[in-house]
Amino acid sequence: MTVEERRRVKRLPREVRERQILDAAVRVFSDHGYHNASMDEVSDVAGVSKPMIYAYLGSKEDLFAACIHREATQLLAAVAAGVRTELPADMQLWHGLGAFFEYVGAHRESWRVLHRQAISQGGPFSEELLDMRRQAISLVDTLLVRVATKEGLGRGATESLAAALVGAAESLADWWLDNPDVPSRAVASRLMNLAWIGFGGLVDGRTWHPSAD
Amino acid sequence: MTVEERRRVKRLPREVRERQILDAAVRVFSDHGYHNASMDEVSDVAGVSKPMIYAYLGSKEDLFAACIHREATQLLAAVAAGVRTELPADMQLWHGLGAFFEYVGAHRESWRVLHRQAISQGGPFSEELLDMRRQAISLVDTLLVRVATKEGLGRGATESLAAALVGAAESLADWWLDNPDVPSRAVASRLMNLAWIGFGGLVDGRTWHPSAD
Amino acid sequence: MTVEERRRVKRLPREVRERQILDAAVRVFSDHGYHNASMDEVSDVAGVSKPMIYAYLGSKEDLFAACIHREATQLLAAVAAGVRTELPADMQLWHGLGAFFEYVGAHRESWRVLHRQAISQGGPFSEELLDMRRQAISLVDTLLVRVATKEGLGRGATESLAAALVGAAESLADWWLDNPDVPSRAVASRLMNLAWIGFGGLVDGRTWHPSAD
Amino acid sequence: MTVEERRRVKRLPREVRERQILDAAVRVFSDHGYHNASMDEVSDVAGVSKPMIYAYLGSKEDLFAACIHREATQLLAAVAAGVRTELPADMQLWHGLGAFFEYVGAHRESWRVLHRQAISQGGPFSEELLDMRRQAISLVDTLLVRVATKEGLGRGATESLAAALVGAAESLADWWLDNPDVPSRAVASRLMNLAWIGFGGLVDGRTWHPSAD
DNA sequence: GATGAATGAGACTTCATTCAT
DNA sequence: TATGAATGAAGTCTCATTCAT
């Protein structure tokens, strides 16, 4: 084997190898789930031998965590980019939701790994996920607060609403995975309506209470 | 002869053993997830040897499916019992949500198995789950239709809203599992407000549209 | 359950139960082979519970040995009945072979158990089989001796020829199981020709020797 | 570093390990039969861990099939090498039989695996075996045809005789396994006489028919 | 006499992980 | 750097066999 040949197939810089591996891992985890995914398949898909994976990214658990971390960061970045702070609050929310569903639609595998797989594995993995959710909630909260404090809604209430909204978005995205015919804008619009009108009602003081109980 | 000894020696009828096994399985699947759960642990917790499990409930997959089926049936029954059709629509929804969150709160393990575990395993398991969801959606739909048709909202729209509502409830329940301090009534109330006000807006024709895009 | 009912389905005399069980066992062993046969299936086919089998016929190994013994005895009896000592030697052999192939053809399962299964299990089972073969060989030998001593062939040679003949018959029967279209008389005739002519040659002193080696 | 240590540590090429494993498997299958043989014992005897066996040779069934294939190929090669086509027909047959019994005598384990085990397992395994037998029969047939057509025996009859001869050889070999005192040449000679004289009779038109029936 | 209930033991198979080259 | 070779440990499942009724 000549030097030239060796260079052609091997000795890629570490950074490149890591990306190859993570790409393959996301795909495999998404396809088969965390447990059914085998390191053998990851190494096959990545075109990299198993010892390399262990050398670069550690154990299977570590590898999965790295996947979640990378995908979560990308998703959050996409959403944050969608929200432009110079717009009015409702348009910010609208664009945020739009960016979210667009990202999920374009990266189904990422979302599957992030939400379905990570959520069903206990313990270590949830951390990354909870952290991302916390960031998302805070993003929405600052948005709601701007509207609510102008009106009369107290702090604290907004955060729980933000949580509900984020949860609803996650759930809707998850549902969407199984119903892919609906266009992404329609999904976003559906949620926007429920949220904005409902929220508007709360802000205006129109709330519902059990008539008798 | 001590109680312990009697327990070890008694030949219980099949029906009883099956319940014991299912109880144990729900607990174990809930604690460790489908894949990390071992039949050994199920048999330990059930106080029954593994061969009995295979004889009565079949393979691990069969056992899991049986768990889902039983728990889903119980949950639906609880919700249906909560909805009393002689009440006005909003109170029906309120009681239905109340029953739902109460059940989830009282049977966290059941819910974990049902929602988190079953959803993250592909294929065969989803069927049972989808079926349950279909029933739930139809339950809510009949409810919304009664209100909507009196007013002006068209058919079809209600079903998608029902789906959104069910999804939101699931998501909220799931979130609640990780935030157990909130009392169940508060959670139900939160969702009821969002839903009823938002829904009311739609019925009244107050909808949101992007101002410019 | 009335006394009448109990009597109708249960409490058969031991002898009958044993036959039921053996019949079932022969069939199951023949169908699946000794190892793949399960006591469960035997008990199902026999319509008798497993504890009965153990009570009446002992362990799986014992049961198998009992099968071999019964079938071997029947086969030998059938062959012996075919050979009528008042006939000339060649007709005796002819009728013996005829009875043998007829029996095998009519009791394929028995033969499968006897020959294929018993032969592939080492140790204890071979005993029964070897014994049967010894009896068969002796049967043929007495026959050949009557012809040979009239002529010039020495003792000892006949026995080895008898062994070859029995072996050839077994092998042919086994082959026949996989080629069932050939009628039983044709199979018998084929062997008879080879044997009688070859044997006749030996008796007459026409033998083959390597021309040079 | 002792020999033992080197053996434990050396990374042998796949080819070598496969041979080791097959050797061990033939021995173990031969000793205990297909079903009683455990993969654990194969791995022990081979000096290789079980996962290697599965990686290289597949399941237990695959492993067994591989054994049969290898041994059958070797046996056929040995017989074909014995038959030298420049000799007269009887000498060809004689040398072929000689090679056959010599091989069986020298590789008792191979033969046990080939004939006794493979024959008693149904289905997939028989294929390899049937194929080998077909080749052997055709080998013998071409031989007989050369003699028979010179004389008056029709086609088709030779093939069935070839089949009988092959079957007789198999059966005799099998019998020999249980009577190992007889020297291999004696066994070959015994069969040669029966076959050649009997066959000669048929060629000459001396056939036997029941005198009355 | 008869059986449903029950299990200890062991089989096959897979996988994450690590050497030795 | 890169990998083929190798394995300990664990999991699912089956089966002959025996109690307790």
TrEMBL record, chains A, B, C, D:
Keywords (A to Z) from UniProt: DNA-binding, Transcription, Transcription regulation
One Pfam family from the record: TetR_N
Keyword Secreted part of the UniProt annotation: no
Species, as recorded: Actinophytocola glycyrrhizae
Transmembrane segments: none
Organism domain of life: Bacteria
Protein name: TetR/AcrR family transcriptional regulator
InterPro entries: DesT_TetR_C (IPR054129), Homeodomain-like_sf (IPR009057), HTH-type_TetR-like_transc_reg (IPR050109), HTH_TetR (IPR001647), Tet_transcr_reg_TetR-rel_C_sf (IPR036271)
Ranges of the DNA-binding region feature: 38-57
Domain HTH tetR-type residues, every copy: 15-75
PROSITE patterns in alphabetical order: HTH_TETR_2
Keyword Cytoplasm carried by entry: no
